[in-house]
Design brief:
PsdUridine_synth_RluA-like_CS, 10-stranded mixed β-sheet, alpha+beta, 3-stranded antiparallel β-sheet, 28% strand, 7 helices, globular, PsdUridine_synth_RluC/D, Pseudouridine synthase
């Protein structure tokens, strides 16, 4: 959709994208082991919630979307980059319930590690891949093209595809995608009925017990903090009802070097961060999981825990290995080749504010999903060897 707009970009012919525009190979920029998305113009559409009613259009955006300064929203409304029901409105306009609100934005997506999404197995109605750490599975939040679904569409022309299970953004490993909605529903029915067995491998702090360990403790996820906690029954009088959900994970030690251990993880339920918080609960958090290392529930001394953190940090891979890095198709293309938008609060940087692209994936990797009639597997990662 091409439009000319008033304001600083009045002489620019801008092509606005919507979710209907598929990702393309040329949308990606590769630099120093990081995959960036070339910034693009995008129309965000929402419908006014009841709590928005009665607010001016500028107050609504300044209160609800705090990622940009108020002055930006004033300019966006004046220039027509923020519209109500497809029309320009004054900055004093009062929003009514259910009105269509459009925000025409110069979109900068967060970067991810530049590792290939490797296709492991293909069938007429199923494809399995090895998901790289740091890449979200599907469009969510600020991510749209820098997702497994987006990359597979851009680089392998795979669309439509339907992920049938979740993997957290920082987790790597097996991801199963259906090629049709009906096949996806069939998989999900098996998952919901408890027929599907899942296996992960993790690298954890300390010498994990030789005997199988079972963590059977409720998990409570706090969306505001972005982390889970374990709730343990303490025989109270019941005046404080539990907020957690039932959760169970089985753990079996594969190997240890006396400092860290490789552990097979078999979640029976599927709660947010379940494996991570259950390993913390057992006193053996994932060795590079800074979210749960900081509050390790053990009786080890503070000095010992600090040493564990130092050991984990000393072995963290700062970027993908040469064999894993995705090689761009056009190496002579300048990495800064994108249009600078005069109103954008992120330009001239590739990444949005708050993202520098330097993060590591968790040492947690999905290796197997199975159910009666089918099994899909993914190779072990390099960090799963302690030699």
């Amino acid at each position: 959709m091409k439009r000319k707009r008033d304001g600083p970009e009045e002489n620019m012919e801008i092509v606005w994208q919507t979710p209907a525009n598929p990702p393309q190979r040329q949308d990606y920029i590769f630099r120093d082991g990081i995959r960036y998305v070339r910034p693009y113009y995008f129309e965000f559409i929402s419908h006014a919630k009841n709590r928005w009613a009665g607010k001016t259009i500028v107050d609504l955006f300044a209160d609800e979307f705090k990622g940009r300064p108020r002055d930006y929203y004033v300019s966006a409304v004046k220039s027509g980059r923020i519209q109500v029901d497809g029309q320009k409105v004054p900055i004093s306009y009062v929003v009514q319930p259910s009105q269509k609100i459009s925000h025409f934005l110069h979109r900068h997506e967060p970067p991810v590690m530049a590792m290939d999404v490797k296709i492991l197995h293909t069938e007429p109605d199923v494809v399995t891949v090895c998901k790289p750490a740091s890449v979200p599975v599907h469009p969510c939040g600020q991510y749209r093209k820098n997702t497994v679904v987006g990359i597979l569409q851009a680089e392998h022309d795979l669309a439509p595809i339907f992920p049938i299970h979740r993997l957290d953004r920082l987790v790597s490993g097996l991801l199963i995608l259906a090629r049709s909605a009906s096949k996806a529903d069939s998989f999900r029915q098996q998952i919901e009925s408890g027929e599907v067995k899942k296996q992960y491998v993790a690298r954890v702090i300390g010498v994990f017990p030789e005997d199988q360990q079972v963590a059977n403790a409720k998990v409570n996820y706090n969306a505001r903090e972005g982390k889970s906690t374990v709730e343990v029954e303490n025989g109270s009088n019941g005046k404080s009802p539990s907020k957690g959900k039932d959760a169970c994970t089985k753990f079996t030690r594969i190997s240890t070097n006396g400092t860290q251990s490789i552990v097979l993880c078999e979640p029976i339920t599927g709660r947010t961060h379940q494996i991570r918080v259950h390993l913390q609960f057992l006193g053996h958090p994932i060795a590079n999981d800074m979210l749960y290392l900081s509050e390790c529930i053990t009786h080890r001394s503070v000095e010992g825990l600090s040493a564990d953190r130092a050991a984990a940090n000393s072995t963290l891979p700062m970027k993908p290995s040469d064999s894993e890095i995705h090689v761009p198709h056009s190496t002579d293309e300048p990495v800064e080749d994108f249009n600078i938008d005069p109103m954008c609060t992120n330009c001239p940087n590739l990444a949005p504010k708050g993202y520098d692209g330097h993060e590591e994936g968790l040492w947690l990797h999905c290796i197997k999903y199975s159910a009666p009639g089918w099994t899909y597997e993914c190779p072990y990662p390099e960090w799963a060897s302690l030699s």
